[in-house]
What we know:
The protein is α+β, with helices and mostly antiparallel strands. The chain has four helices and seven strands. Strands 1-2-3-4-5-7-6 form a seven-stranded mixed beta sheet, with helices on both faces. A hairpin with a 2-residue loop joins strand 2 and strand 3. The radius of gyration is 16 Å and the shape is globular. The protein starts with 7 loop residues before the first strand and ends with a strand.
Amino acid sequence: MSGAQDLIIRQLTSADIANVRALHHAHRSNASQDTLLPIKYPTSFFLQLTLLRERVCLVAYHPQDPTTPVAFVSAALQQNPRVHGLPKSYSLTDGEDDFSDPVVSKDAPHIEILTLGVLPAYQQRGVARVLVRRVYDYFSENTNAPRDDTVVHTNVATSNTSALSFYERMGLKVASGVIRNLYRAVPHGSKDGYLLVGRISS
């Protein structure tokens, strides 16, 4: 089975939107009815990813089938971040609701990971890690966001232990208490979430 290095990764185009939307709702496993993402995003969400310079969606394809996506990540750059769940002062420590390390400035540009998903057959192969790093590279190369100052943040459902573990391995830390009803549009499962913040580890 191919690893991340064997995949084609390119920016989302309008021609890809239908297939990427379908991938968002692929099942997490053959035995599960849970989908990669529980929220159904409208077409306008994907159109913004193709039109706005400070938004991006990267899609991964197997070289033998370059029209059927196997993974995706979408993100937005926020130059003056207003981050839901972020305390007024904060530091990267292990303390809940304590995120105030001088190494990470709250006023620094933030890359918000909006969505991230990998088909089960391609999981545990470094695909998600490569996609997140490519997002970081994209904003460093295409905007005025300085690589050394840019912070990454995302929200994760409290029940999504695999995503929490993944982002912590990438260098992010939980930077909030439980954010109640963050995923109120989700039809089933936990609606509570955490904010994770940090810099991508090398």
